[in-house]
Amino acid sequence: MILGLLDEAMTAGARLAPACAVLCLDPRTVQRWMRAGVGDDRRAGPRAKPKNALSEAERAHVLTVVGSPEFRDKSPKQIVPMFADRGEYIACESTVYRILRDSNQLHHREPSREPCHRYRPQPCLAIAPNQVWSWDITYLRSTRRGTFFYLYMVLDVWSRKIVGFVVHEVESSELSAALFEACFTAEGVLPGILVLHADNGSPLKGATMLAKLLELGVAASFSRPSVSNDNPFSESAFRTAKYRPDFPSKPFDSVEDARAWAADFVRWYNTEHLHSSIHFVTPEDRHAGRHLEILEGRERVYAEAKARHPERWSGETRDWSNVATVELNPEPDGEVRLPA
To answer: What is the model's pTM?
Structure first.
């Protein structure tokens, strides 16, 4: 019955996670039931109370101890060892935590900021250029100790083309906004189409930058703090840049030298680099739509080679099909959504 209700809801357009939340189920549990082909809810129902459970009097004693003036500012991980030093055992730490949670007394007690849950960024699906962009800033070493140059780079997720870059001696939200507006204008992007994903650094999400995105009608998306995997496309491009054989082994003498190197790298990356994730076409060719003809030509070459010597092929020829869609931060269950 449970799986039937979920099927009905998803057929009507609901997503799995919200539908499971209504039924107080974890989506991964439902997916496991679906893979196993059980046909319905596999929950065993209410369980009998364990024979070794604490009595009500013992639970009340634990609450009294934890709430006493001596221990009310301490965690169960401190209270239990302190009682053991006195030769008394009240319960294990996990049991104390469980009793506190059942009594609605498990709250943040320290003067520090309460921990908060960081949610994954919303998934986005790009099916053409200029729908989802990713951008970031990386350090370039200078010959002056303790100072750096900063490479700002904006990347189209679908084509992998670097649509804009600049090198500055400082990081700032104003410079970020200026670069993005230049990219937006050069690419002729229309308002309400583009999603821009970035890390959580202040130059990337400062007030000036956010105001510019709002002005241009661009949806903002941000990674979780200290989670580089949420911005994989920019991180991958920076790694390609810094591990190329011609990346300088010594720091840059001046910002002009850094800009000259960055310009040469971007030209190579866009027009010469055969990107593996898009079946080895250049980002520039894919961005302009020329990749389809290139991939079709490769497909013909392989088909002719197989026709000449079929005995040399044990299966199908190499896959030279077009990579039609690219996902940014897909859902764990594989669901995706179109850009907002």
So the answer is: 0.68
